[in-house]
Amino acid sequence: MPTQLVFVKSSFIRSIxxxxxxxxxxxxxxSGALYQYKNVSKVTFTxxxxxxxxxxxxxxxxxxxxxxxxx
Length: 71
Known about the structure:
The protein is of the alpha+beta class. It has one domain (about 5-70). It has helices spanning about 40-50, 55-60, and strands at about 5, 15-20, 25-30, 35-40, 70. The chain has a 5-stranded antiparallel beta sheet with strand order 1-2-3-4-5, covered by helices on one side. The longest helix is centred in the middle third of the chain and has 9 residues, at about 40-50. The chain starts with a strand and ends with a strand.
């Protein structure tokens, strides 16, 4: 089943989603680029979703921490 993306309020990120079975977080940037980050915990994704700044949380806690692939 494809990951459901949720639109978020951010100048950097358009939408994010999570697949619990695969432990992957998907992010669609404002540029249209779509990336999937591997082995992301549900707790980390939930914190990201609830964070006041999605871009800041991404830069501090996702990018450079998890393996990724552009999709």
